[in-house]
Specification:
- It holds the Pfam family Aldo_ket_red.
- By secondary structure, the protein is of the alpha/beta class.
- The chain has one domain: TIM Barrel, CATH 3.20.20.100.
- The chain contains 13 helices and eight strands.
- Strands 1-2-3-4-5-6-7-8 form an eight-stranded parallel β-barrel, surrounded by four helices.
- Strand 2, helix 2 and strand 3 form a beta-alpha-beta unit.
- Helix 10 crosses helix 11.
Length: 317
């Protein structure tokens, strides 16, 4: 077992969109990210004390990791934590595809170890989970987690790792006001009882919960998120209005409150950061106090919206 405990931050920094090609119709957001802009994001994050960066080999098929590695060269390796993933659906044909993908990630990121390495999707838990054990023993991976696994798969992965003296040290699933399947399936309670940090991704539903978008001002056409969310923006208005009003009372904005909700639920939100002012939003999110009434009202409005934002890659929990 690794002797150092995983340092769980209040918020983790997502870099999925850093793998975007920047071409409309060929990427996630249809945005163009510059090296200088991302360095400014990193500098603000560093100054604010946000240290865990989450990426994956399949985000832009290496582009996200490579850009992140270049940007983080400006800091000492001990100043930040790297979280990346093995994705079974992209496994190679070598004798050990997990070790092979890890080596690609290490090269992309310009490091010799990963702080938190994930099995990205369950696929075949008995097949892939044991492959983490030699990586932990080698020191190339310090801690391991599972992403998009249901409760029985999390327990199975933990049992497999436990036989070698290790354990599942983190769980990462889609979790937002609009998509609370991990809570409904008992995964949040399990993690709390076992002392396992739960990382929540898509907390802002790719911008749909920021209050920035409406039927009159939809998400950018030609992007995947426009296709996924523009049709439901009208149903989200009461919820985003409430997020904005709670924020206004605390000198904050709707996305800050959505992130604060995830923190209040005992999770670590992974928030995508592509612009420097997003870091200021995360600082505000950490200082927001939500009452139990606030949380109940937000969840009731989310339920009333009656939308399903489960991703195509996700299984039912």
């Amino acid at each position: 077992m690794t002797t150092d405990n995983l340092k769980t931050p209040m918020v983790a920094l997502g870099t999925w969109a850093w793998g975007d090609s920047g071409e409309i119709g060929d990427g996630y957001f249809g945005t163009h990210l510059t090296r200088a802009g991302l360095e400014e994001v990193a500098d603000k994050a560093h100054a604010a004390g946000f240290t865990l960066w989450d990426t994956a080999r399949v985000y832009g098929m290496g582009r996200s990791e490579t850009v992140l590695g270049e940007v983080l060269k400006r800091y000492a390796r001990s100043d930040y934590q790297l979280s990346t993933k093995f994705t079974p659906q992209a496994a190679g044909t070598s004798d050990d595809p997990v070790a092979e993908m890890l080596e690609q990630s290490l090269a992309n990121l310009g490091t010799d170890y990963i702080d938190l390495y994930w099995i990205h999707n369950p696929a075949d838990v008995p097949r892939w989970t044991p492959r983490l054990i030699p990586l932990l023993k080698s020191g190339k991976v310090k801690h391991v987690g599972v992403s998009n696994h249901n409760l029985s798969e999390i327990k199975l992965a933990d049992r497999i790792l436990g036989e070698a003296g290790f354990r599942v040290e983190a769980v990462q699933n889609h979790y937002s006001l609009l998509y609370r399947s991990s809570e409904q399936a008992g995964i949040l309670d399990y993690c709390r009882n076992q002392g396992i940090p739960f990382f929540a991704y898509m907390v802002l539903e790719q911008g749909a919960l920021t209050g920035k978008y409406s039927p009159e001002n939809p998400l950018p056409e030609g992007s995947n998120r426009a296709e996924n969310y523009n049709g439901i923006l009208r149903q989200l208005k009461a919820l985003t209005d409430k997020l904005a009003s709670i924020g206004q009372s605390q000198g904050a904005a709707a996305p800050d409150v959505a992130a604060a909700w995830a923190i209040a639920k005992g999770t670590t939100p992974i928030i995508g950061v592509t612009k420097p002012h997003y870091i200021e939003s995360l600082v505000r999110a950490g200082s927001i106090t939500l009452t139990s009434d606030d949380i109940a009202e937000l969840e009731a409005l989310a339920d009333a919206a009656n939308v399903n934002t489960r991703g195509w890659w996700e299984q039912a929990m």
